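Hey L., structure's done. Input below.
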Amino acid sequence: MARRVHVVGQGGVRLAAWEFGEPPREKRADGRAERPGVLLLHGLLGRASHWADTARWLSARWRAVALDQRGHGRSDKPAAGPFDRDAFVADAEAAVEQLGLGPAVLIGHAMGALTAWQLAARRPDLVRAVVICDMRAAALGVRSRQEWSAWLASWPVPFATLADVRRWFGEEDPALDRPRPARGDFFAEVMAERADGWRPGFSRPQMLAAREGWVREAHWDELALVQSPTLVVRGLDGELGRAEAHEMVRVLPRGRYADIPDAGHLVHLERPAEWREIVEGFLRDEGLW
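Output:
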C-alpha cells in the first residue's frame, strides 16, 4: 500500500510525498518512529512514483517515503521559485524532520542524489547513510545548459497517446544511443493529459532553473563533508563516468563504489534486480539491514 502525506517546504511550498507500507503505530519518546526511515529523492524531471518498486521492497524493514520535489509531480510549482540548491535541500530537511524519519537513509537519483549529499553535509544528525545514483560532483558547464535547453525544445509535444510518449523517449529520441524502454516508461509517468494531448506535468523553464545548481557549480567540497557511509552507484552507460565516480569515492570519508552493466542513467529502473542487490548489500554491510 501507499498513502499520500504532505510536507511544508521552504517558503511554505506544499510538497507531496508517498509512504509505502504500513504507517508507523508506535513512536519513541522523542516523537520519532521505531522503524528507521528512508527518504527517496527522484532526479530532475522525475517524480516520487519512479521509486515505487524500490520503496516497496525497502518497506519490509524501513519507513520508506518518496518525495515529489518542488516543481515536480503533485508538489507545488511556485511561479516565482526559488529553484536553487538551498530550496531543494531545505525541502528534504523538512521532509525528514516533519515526518520523523531521522536519522534516515537518503537514496537519491541524479539531482535527488545531489540533494541527499548536500543535506548529509549540512545536517549529519539527520542522516544514517547515503546512496548516490548516477550523479556527478563536477560542474557541467554552460555548453551543457545550451544542449539541454535545445533537447527540451525538441520534444514533439503534444503527444497524442502515452504509447507515443513511450516510443519517442524510448526509441526515437535522437539523443538515444540505443532503444531504452525504461526511459520511455519514465517519461510516460511524468506526462499530464491536456485538451490537445499529453504534455509534461512540469514547467520546462523551472526545470532549467533547477538544473543551474550543477551547471555552474561543482559540489566536491560538500561531498567531502559527508560523514555517513555513502555508496556511489553508476550505470556503465550512464552520465557519471568511472574516473569521476572513483574520485567521488576517494573524496568521501566513508565512500564505496558499485556499477551496473547494461544500464544507462536510469539505473534503478533499467536494472532493478541488480540495483536492489547492491543497495541491500550496502545497507547490510553497514549494519543497517
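The CA atoms of residues 35 and 63 lie 6 Å apart. The mean pLDDT is 95.

-- N.
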